[in-house]
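Q: Structure tokens for this one, please.
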Amino acid sequence: MIKRTFKQIHEMAGGLNDAAEFANIDIHGVSIDSRNITANNLFVPLPGERVNGHQYVEKAFSLGAGASLWEKDMPNPPAHRPLIIVDNVLEALQKLARAYRSQLNIKVVGVTGSNGKTTTKDIVAALLATEYKVHKTSGNFNNHIGLPLTILAMEEDTQAAVLEMGMSNRGEIEFLSKLGRPDVAIITNIGESHLLDLGSREEIANAKLEIISGLPEDGFLIYHGDEPLLRERIQNLRNLRVLSFGRGIENDLYPTSITQHQDSTSFRLAGEEESYTIPVLGQHNVLNALAAMLSAKLLNVGDKQIREGLGSFQLTNMRMEMVEGARGEKIINDAYNASPTSMKAAIELIEGLSGFNKKYLVLGDMLELGEAEVDFHVKIGGLINPDKIDKLFTYGTLGKAIAEGAKKSFSENDLFAFEDKADLISELRRHTTANDLVLVKASRGMKLEEVVLALQQPEFGTEKV
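A: Here is the predicted structure, written as tokens:
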């Protein structure tokens, strides 16, 4: 974490007041939550929709904060406290992170994309960790608040950082890229997430390409070369060094074969006899691994270390996470997010797996898809093969549209649509037995991880969801 004196933090954050009285106070780390203050933290009182953090500044000091930011237009600053007066608290946090990033001697990999950016971040971090001391984005700290906090949480001796960059609108990735200044930037893919905000996949591609804004002259962009929207745009960019990954042979890195196992996936590359194995399911995760491998090679990680890292990485929770239910059923918890692209990939994965008694899908609403949201859901339902999936359970208003799309091929006895989660769980428990496979997937707002947790409980029928 950042460790500086009050005077240094004051200068880096753009403080407006006199820092002399408290100049030599040591500051260790940053917190935006007064409940999580540790000794000598800098407290950052962000204004929120419901609560303004300034009202917790005194509490933060009582819990051991070493200093606090304070917005100049806020009344009644506490007297005789080590405050750093700034024009805008959020901008000061970002300015502090930008200054700290400039002081660190690190290599940075920035990751964005409609799907797979968190998984790719996790794989990149695992590969780099075989050679470097690595820091990576934690949880969903990938926005204009989370990225500065991620940077400020780095230890001084960090050698490599993997920064996830998320967005909702144009300009956000550009801001994050210029803040994080990646040496290598990765675009995992272009999907349909944020169609509600951006209106088209073309605009999503433009927004994701903003990640090159912070690249240095000798930086590299790694991108999904099977995506025409990216390839055509990148061909029009001059003086940009690029590498591509994908299924097609026109890419710099592509698999010649992919073999799916019950709890892992193996793949081969052109010209190599020995296969690579990743401890997760899905061909889409092979593509994520290829992007990570390219970034690791650029940062001089050897093939032996790459194989080691691929075999040991762990995904962030609720992303193709295999867990066991109380009855011995296998559950793939992919409840963190969903889009038509990732939903299709997950369904194809389950359809292709063998060795299970029966296979069930539990699918919920995909959010932020704009005016065509119902049509997207209907099409997903129409893609599901009843010869490979035994029963389909849907949840939510839009989930009903998935069921509508599946009616053309599924019998009524194998199709269930719910808007009550407890009813869904109760019906699902009537069917699952040992060695069944259950995929649970929806957008984060649907909280379908509650279905997974219920299936793991030894007692059923009294779930509170």
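A few notes: Residues 460-465 have pLDDT under 50 and may be disordered. The chain is about 35% helix and 20% strand.
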